[in-house]
Amino acid sequence: MKNNQNTHVEVAIIGTGTAGMGAYREVRKHTDSIALIEGGQYGTTCARVGCMPSKLLIAPGELRHNTEKFADFGLQGKIPSVDGKAVMKRVKDERDRFVGFVNEDIDSFDEKHRIQAYASFVDDHTLSLSTGGTLTADKIIIATGSRPNIPGFFEQAKDRLITNDDVFYWDDLPKSIAVFGAGVIGLELGQALHRLGVHTHLFGVGDAVGPLSDPEVIATSLEIFKGEFPFHSNGQVKSIERNDKGVQITFKPTPDSEEVTETFDYLLAATGRKTNIDNIGIENTSLELDGRGVPIYNPMSMQCGNSHVFIAGDVNGDIPLLHEAADEGRLAGENASTFPQVFKKARKTSLGVVFSDPQIATVGMSFRALTKKLGCHFASGSVSFTGQGRSRVMLVNKGLLKVYGDKETGVLLGAEMIGPHNEHIAHLLAWVIQLRMTVSEVLQMPFYHPVIEEGLRSALRDLLFNLDMGAHPPLRCIDCGPGA
After folding, report:
1. What is the spatial distance between Cα 76 and Cα 80, in angstroms, rounded to a whole number?
2. Nearest CA to 92 among 161, 16, 169?
3. Which terminus, N or C, of the chain has the lesser number of Cβ atoms within 10 Å?
4. Can you tell me the distance from the alpha carbon of 388 to that of 386, in angstroms, rounded to the nearest whole number?
5. Which family does it belong to (predicted)?
6. Could you give the number of structural domains in the chain?
């Protein structure tokens, strides 16, 4: 599609990330009158600077870390040295391969639908294009994604201030780094860089750990991470300065400790992401906006108010995950195509994983949400992985799993956890929660022996007892298997 012409389409989609691509595929089923607008690079956040390249950095760090357990297994060996240039070459090569797959998808889209330009609202139906001209549309889907959020305080690091986007363009690993933010990005990259031999300090706020809200799981997580590398989960940063050696940071590791000053090669801001809603002229529309300037929308239809505008993916700031963005994009595309007929659809069970080691996962309703909604009308069950049989065999026996159930119905509601290979347990729980299974029904499902998932059964039995719906779990029960 020519960029400089004034034209009209039935549906305009702003953004070609995961949500935008999903929306396009749905809209394409209904009409050929489409504008797919992208001002930046093609390639999703996940593929270019998110979930895939981060795992490429985590994998060698985890492999190297596991060699530290050799002696405990009775094995003789040494911890491998790190070739930073080789590590980053593989990260970038594989990252580019993933991005290439995304670009191939974009290339397969009809060329006459694609516009390479930045778009900004002039009014509810009109978009101004950075390449000149305007475009009007009957329906518009906003899928402009997000970008790293950088607090102004960090700008004192000057040229040594980076974000996770920058990490995946490194040619070599630095000697040291200060990571700010103990969310998903900070935990994953901070631990991975530490395990690759980079002197790393992780700074958090208020003892927060990723997406966790259960105090017991948070406490277990803090103990695990602080036992491995410097993690100042509630420290106080006094100053940040750029000196001739890098970034000098003066801080108190805890509120009651003495001040410490250290210099790092870089300051990595992993302090969340902000939505790309502030640069598309959203204020020129009649849409009702929330306190963040994001249009108020229905998450079950992606419709903004009762309007012809839909919003999907990271730009809405709701759940910034690839699978959520894909679902939202498809839903927005379907409803934009059939507007003014709009249908609501039930969303999938919430599922999130932090690829730290041990892994953190949240499924269904969180402890915080349940406390707010149900108060004392839910119960919890737990299992520690410290004594769990298969976990001890593999020397990965760290962590705590909490599961939550409804006291009235016995339905399983949610879970928070940190533990070995919890990505798999989280998936199992997401499936049974979406099926609205009771705790008793889940316990009738098959469990093999010896597997880490037996720990889940122990937690469910504890929950059943606390719901007053089952007997107290027998100590080291025979049918669980030794050490289950």
Report:
1. 13
2. 169
3. N
4. 6
5. Belongs to the class-I pyridine nucleotide-disulfide oxidoreductase family.
6. 3
Coil vs helix vs strand at 14: strand
CATH number of the domain that residue 476 is part of: 3.30.390.30
CATH of the domain at 166: 3.50.50.60
Q: Rounded to an integer, what is the distance from CA 395 to the centroid of its chain?
A: 27
Catalytic residue among 8, 421, 424, 449: 449
3-class DSSP assignment, residue 257: coil
* CA angle 399–402–405, rounded 5-degree value: 170
Distance (Å, whole) CA 414 – CA 381: 11
Binding residues for NAD(+): 181-188, 272
Domain assignment present for 345: no
Query: What does pTM read for this prediction?
Result: 0.91
Q: Residue 299: how many CB atoms within 10 A of its CB?
A: 16
Helix (H) or strand (E) holding 382: strand 378-384
The verdict on residue 475 lying in a domain is: yes
pLDDT digits (tens, 9 = 90+) for 124-161: 999 999 999 999 999 999 999 998 889 999 999 999 99
CB atoms within 10 A of CB 258: 7
Residue 483 three-state SS? coil
DSSP 392-427: HHTT----EEEEEEETTT-BEEEEEEEETTHHHHHH
Which of 221, 255, 272 terminates a domain? The answer is 272
Residue 449 catalytic?
Answer: yes
Handedness of CA 33, 39, 43, 44 (dihedral sign): negative
CB 278 within 8 A of CB 236: no
* Res 21 pLDDT > 60: yes
Is residue 343, in this structure, part of any structural domain at all?
no
DSSP 357-375: SSEEEEEES-HHHHHHHHT
Annotated binding-site positions: 55, 144-146, 181-188, 272, 314
CA distance 215 to 238: 28
Record the tokens describing residue 463, joined without a space.
């929950």
State whether residue 3 is helix, strand or coil: coil
Task: Give the mean pLDDT of 54-82.
Answer: 93
- CB 211 within 8 Å of CB 360: yes
Question: Reduced to 3 states, what is the DSSP secondary structure of residue 180?
Answer: strand
For residue 229, the enclosing domain spans: 152-272
Residues that constitute the known binding site for FAD: 55, 144-146, 314
Hunting for tokens 């001002």 — which residue is that? 39
